[in-house]
Amino acid sequence: MRIARFSIDGNVAFGVVEGDASTEGGPVLDIIKGHPFAEFERSGKKVPLSKVRLLPPVLPNKVVAIGRNYAEHAAELGNDVPEVPVTFFKPSTAVIGPGDPIAYPSFSSELHHEAELAVVIGRMCREVPRERVKDVILGYTCANDLTARDVQRREQQWARAKGFDTSCPLGPWIETGIEDPANLGIMCTVNGEQRQLGRTSDMVRSVEELIVHITEAMTLLPGDVVLTGTPAGVGPLNVGDEVAVTIEGIGTLTNKVIKRG
């Protein structure tokens, strides 16, 4: 099931995406009663996907991100694979949705894309054992862990380099039907040119390991997001570029880079 968050006529709602580009009339959204973090019903009221504005699929309390979780990506930046996961945060103000503009940070001259699988948490949880991880996951979406690479190199902490406004595009929706996230294709294109191509099977630590590790230290809330790292091929973005993250079984998240006003 694909669950989207969207705006129409000034109202915000969740809906189940039905159909695809090959469907006559295109895909539609069946508006749900309530929200996806509890039992819900489909209302039967449907609107064409083309008539709505897709929003970030969730508004997370926090985004917990993992660095250097693909060996080739660590190597391309001259780093070793860490002995324990490198964990950092992106603030809620970093989150934008599909089609929203990425504002090039004024304090950087080296903005990089990082295509990532994002895990959407479905229920409050802490100290989750590995065998229960699936029970706390609502689904998965696409993410772009935008990074001011020059700032990341220069500063001890990554807060500014990875936490600036618009640095966390998410979308286009949450896919709840992925049984095994361990072998999904991930691709990033810039202006239609392939930049990154990898598979989640290349992750050093699995989704299960990451959730166990994170929840040893903190409580995750419904709607929180975990970013699982990026494959090799990260590279620069410029004002005017269109960057797209595509993940097998989920869809494509597209955003354009603009000059920060």
From TrEMBL:
Transferase recorded as keyword: no
Gene3D superfamilies: FAH, Fumarylacetoacetase-like, C-terminal domain
Record bears the keyword Metal-binding: yes
InterPro entries: Fumarylacetoacetase-like_C, Fumarylacetoacetase_C_sf, Rv2993c-like_N
Listed Pfam families: FAA_hydrolase, Rv2993c-like_N
Domain Fumarylacetoacetase-like C-terminal: 62-257
Name of this protein: Fumarylacetoacetate hydrolase family protein
Species the sequence originates in: Streptomyces morookaense
